[in-house]
Amino acid sequence: MEESKNDRTSRQDAPDAPKVEIEIVKYKWLLQALENPKILWRLIISLSAMLVILFFGLSMVAVIVKSMFPYETIKTNPYGATIMEDEKKEVVYWLFNSSELWANSGIKVKKGDMLTIRSSGMMHTAIHHLVEDVDSNRVLGEPWVDTDGEKYGNKSDRNEARAHFRIAPRVEQNRLLMKVKDDSAGDSGQDGKIYIIGKERSNLLITEDGTLHFAVNDIEMTDTVVSGMYRSFMESVIKDCTLSEDEARAWREFYDKYVKVDRTDKTDGIDYSKVISEKPFLASLPARLSGSPKAKASGVGLGVYYKQDSLYPVLNEVLYYRDMKFPAAWFADNVGSFLIVIERDKEN
Fold first, then answer.
1. Are 315 and 304 in contact (CB under 8 A)?
2. 85-116: per-residue pLDDT in tens?
3. CATH assignment of the domain containing 129
4. Spatial separation of the C-alpha atoms in residues 125 and 189, rounded to whole Å
5. Which of 3, 43, 71, 299 is least enclosed by beta carbons within 10 angstroms?
6. Close Cβ partners of 228 (under 8 Å, ≥ 6 residues apart)
């Protein structure tokens, strides 16, 4: 039976008819806050305070990190240097092996650069002497030294006699040195100016473009040095061992022809034993001076030519180093290393 329109209307208007109400509760607090101005302002102030505290907290973290580690860029070069820089300064850390002669740091500089260089570390000038002294449980004949090197005060010491032949004459033995080498000139180019560094050198003005190379102040066996050391040794032996005029003349003739820096004779592949045996007064010297403490201690004090002990002192170590083309011979037995720190002001 179909319900009439009047019946439906009367039922809807009845006072006890059930009602359905939908309430959104998830964001009720937000709706209440929006309806109440006081709560709304408190919410805004609280959020602003939180944002301000967060901003200043992050800023303080950034300032602390920046103060502890102020550099913006960190990189390395192929020679092991670590380079850190910001917009004002560049700082380079590089570990130098004291056994190297003019070790390449790979650090480029330009004319007008102002550098501050600091160095630290220890080295020993002769590892074989170090081992012998330690093995014999005796006081070291050669001490460990820092980057300022050591000045020998004993005028009779052979190291004093050798001082003239060091890279930087009369500067402390094994003091840290630096030079700038021209990259474009290659091996044929002239070496740059030598800078005395030691433990620290501040406000050092660079006078040429190139790459920084380092060495300790010892003797580089160039032809000029070999010639000079041999002559010094020869003249000292002649005097100390009271050689005859004939013996002295024969030895000096050998020097002029086969050792002197401006010699005309090529010495590559020469049979020294034959040359010496053909000169009676020269040939008699090795046997007469064999084992002589005076001969070995004279002047710069040179050792024997490798596997030619029987011809000493006419043949000695500096000739061997020249013949073997070994200019770094007196550096190869060094042991130790120096940390070198180079600061460059980028604003200059």
1. yes
2. 877 889 999 999 999 999 999 999 999 999 99
3. 2.60.120.430
4. 29
5. 3
6. 164, 165, 261
46 within a domain of the structure (yes/no) = no
Query: What are the residues whose beta carbons fall under 8 Å from the beta carbon of 106, sequence distance 6 or more?
Result: 77, 78, 79, 81, 211
Quote the pLDDT of residue 189. 42
Q: Which residues sit opposite 83 in a β-bridge?
A: 75, 92
Q: Are residues 106 and 228 in the same domain?
A: no
The answer to whether 126 and 333 are in contact (CB under 8 A) is yes
Cβ(108)–Cβ(208) below 8 Å: no
Beta sheet of 82-85, edge-to-edge order: 73-76, 82-85, 89-97, 335-345, 114-124, 200-205
CB hemisphere CA count around 120 (13 angstroms): 2
pTM: 0.75
Let me know whether 305 and 336 are in one domain.
Answer: no
Other CB atoms within 10 Å distance of the CB of residue 176: 27
For helices 28-35 and 37-68, the axis angle rounded to 10 degrees is: 110
What's the number of domains the chain is made of?
A: 2
Strands of the chain (E only): list them.
73-76, 82-85, 89-97, 103-109, 114-124, 176-181, 194-196, 200-205, 210-216, 335-345
Q: Give pLDDT tens digits for 8-51.
A: 555 555 555 566 665 555 666 666 666 667 766 777 788 788 88
Name the 3-class secondary structure at 344.
strand
Rounded CA gap, 248 and 250, in Å?
Answer: 6
Going from the C-alpha of 155 to that of each of 133, 152, 163, 233, 240, the distances in angstroms are: 23, 8, 11, 16, 16
3-state secondary structure of 253: helix
Residue 45 lies in a domain: no
CA–CA–CA angle 316, 320, 321 (5° rounding): 120
DSSP E strands in 145-281: the ranges are 176-181, 194-196, 200-205, 210-216
Q: What is the β-pairing status of strands 210-216 and 103-109?
A: antiparallel
